[in-house]
């Protein structure tokens, strides 16, 4: 087994006990990255020198007999919307193409304090708006399980990196599915914590009432370790709750699901989602039953019917005000104009991509007087109704299963022409975000063609630890996802 194939837990244990060094692991992961990055395009910036220096520091601490953190010597990659001091942070946008932050996001600081080694900043849809990682200044990221297909998004670079073995764990941000869906598309585990569980300080905002820092990994155990490092109160983010977090890794001792009640979403016709994914949902439900859970079919009439519309109204309104700070003066790109208004218009028109412009314009329109009353106000009310629907369910359920995405990872060029089709792909992830609930996309293995199957498990707000326990029981039955070996595509579009 190569070092790049190890989990974060195995790496940290090995570094701590001097089985191998952080430098060796970092070199192995960087080697993997170099071997496939030309094909996958998962990273915007690779920080090879500084990662080797960080690894050397970890090794020096170990040699001095000092106690090292939970992620000692573990290479990781962060989505390029996490501020990193001294390392440019582009959000995949021309407007921030050369922007170098003077501070790091809290999540980055916590990872570094725990001994993790930042290797690179990963590709994303511009400002995290999208579901395929196609809208990027560096071009699309490829899916390592099948390079003819999208990796999902917007954290597609982070998901592809973990699946391809660049690193065992990566950071993404999930506003309406941007970690769960790419995790599903790339065949790994992706966890969106409850809103307020992890500090958003220093993560460039898309929609602040929904954004949440979210880890991706090839095992639930690594997700639990990352969460233990990331989830803590932070005075720099007032939406990050002050309650003291449980030890997430303790949940991994859950052996079965006896005494648990798990809902299984049954509110659709089987042909409304891809048949393989319908099969994966049924299989996950069987596994829970076999592990001792009581299964109950559930419906989510408000969440599924109104989720996408409510989410896009809420998120775009949020986004239009959040992205107002890119005015050509304070950050990033600047284009001259005769008047101040011309300067704003020139800067923003030339430096934001098409999808971001569309969303800013829609969001700004939604916040004008008449539209506010007709759309934004009602969206807030529907969001409250949706939360009541979730609360009623959690009165009797511990968690519930539903698909992460209605579709399998699709071929390049088949969806991006029509934005509404892309938005509808978020039907099962956005309601969970609107409810502030924790959700994890769990790998359900591969189809006979090697395409990833997945299921989404959702829990009550702040019951992240319980959700991790249940997910670990399912993972023990299904098996952990392995590292993908990206295959090249021949002239006829076949994998070779
Ligand atoms: N696909 C959704 C959107 O475009 C979710 C994105 C995200 O979670 N950042 O808004």
Give me some keywords for this one.
496 residues; alpha/beta; Amidase signature (AS) enzymes; eleven-stranded mixed β-sheet; 15 helices; 11 strands; globular; binds glutamine
Proportion of residues in helical segments: 25-40%
**Strand coverage percent:** 5-15%
Determine the number of helices (DSSP H or I, runs of at least 4 residues).
Answer: 15
Physical arrangement of strands within the biggest beta sheet: 1-3-2-4-6-5-10-11-9-7-8
Q: Name the CATH architecture.
A: Alpha-Beta Complex
Structural class: alpha/beta
Q: Which CATH top level class fits?
A: Alpha Beta
**Small ligands present:** glutamine
CATH superfamily: Amidase signature (AS) domain
State the end-to-end CA separation.
Answer: 23 Å
CATH topology, which one? Amidase signature (AS) enzymes
Can you give the mean pLDDT?
A: 95
Q: What form results from the Cα inertia axes?
A: globular
N-to-C SSE string, H for helix and E for strand:
HHEHEHEHEHEEHEHEHHHHEHHEEH
Radius of gyration: 21 Å
Count of strand segments: 11
| Major β-sheet annotation | 11 strands, mixed
Compute the number of structural domains.
Answer: 1
